[in-house]
Amino acid sequence: MTEEVELKWISGFWRRIGALFIDTLILGATGLVLGLFLESFFVQIGAWGRLVGFSIALIYFGVMNSSITGGQTIGKKVLKLRVVDSKNVPISLGKSIIRYFILGIPFSLNGAQFSNEAMLSFLMYPLSLIIFGGLFSILYLYIFNRITRQSLHDLVVGTYVVNANVEQQELGKVWSVHLIIVAILFLAAAVVPAFTKQLAQSEPFKGMLEVQSALSNNPSVAYATISSGSSTFSSTNEETKTTTYVSSQVFLRADNVSDVELARRLASIVIANYPQALQKDTVQITLTYGYDIGIASSWSNHAHNFNPRELQSAE
């Protein structure tokens, strides 16, 4: 004979994460199916593809976490959870949509492609506030707010994720220290861009940004990133060897990731706009083709390596 474990009204951390994992798998599968039919469209719209994924997720979570379906997504239904208000009643569609906006926007904007002009303008301050302030606050509250298990989106709209068919129980208040830490996280996120802007205007970052802009101006290129560094290799039979490099990941508008001549032309652009590349051992151009719609992504890559001095002498 086994004893039944009495469930608390508020859902536990891992049960809630499990429901989210199931819902994420469903959305990911939906995105991949759409990608089979709309790949070229998703590639052409580039960074705007994340808006597609966000819209799908907004409809899914907005509708299914509302009173329309009893406050249960598929994941929550499987694990017998639901979203309710302080009266243990499923919330309205409008409130559910606002709830997902607060949760989804920081994650959707995180990793999105922004132009250098946008990232060096006043726009970087609200973006940092929303992305980093939102992300860190949501994650912090998920993990450490153990009394009500409310994260940022729950606190704003007054909702709880609870075990279904369990009677409502009295709850304590959210620890005030949690709210102070959330305020500090948002304040830090708002201040950080002031330092990153100064960093971007100094060398070598300023030169790297110029290379990035030059690469992005190529008609074959949708977007490009640039970095510089070194790699150290060692083995028992050989001496330690350090290789310096300039590396660029170039996102293409067409599936030409194996085009060596295109990679060579792009490597020449790097050298022309970043003379320090001639002092490196390798210029690596990674050609990338694919899409990212937030809920799913598909990429193909091909790395092309060039000796910068050989490239310069061949011109």
Automatic annotation (TrEMBL):
GO terms for cellular component: plasma membrane. Pfam families: RDD (PF06271). The keyword Transferase does not apply. Keywords: Cell membrane, Membrane, Transmembrane, Transmembrane helix. It is found in: Cell membrane. InterPro entries: Pra-immunoreactive, RDD. The chain crosses the membrane at residues 20-42, 48-68, 89-110, 122-143, 174-195. Its main location: membrane. It comes from the Bacteria. It is a multi-pass membrane protein. Residues 11-156 form the RDD domain. PANTHER family: MEMBRANE PROTEIN, PROLINE-RICH ANTIGEN HOMOLOG-RELATED. This is Putative RDD family membrane protein YckC. It comes from Simiduia aestuariiviva.
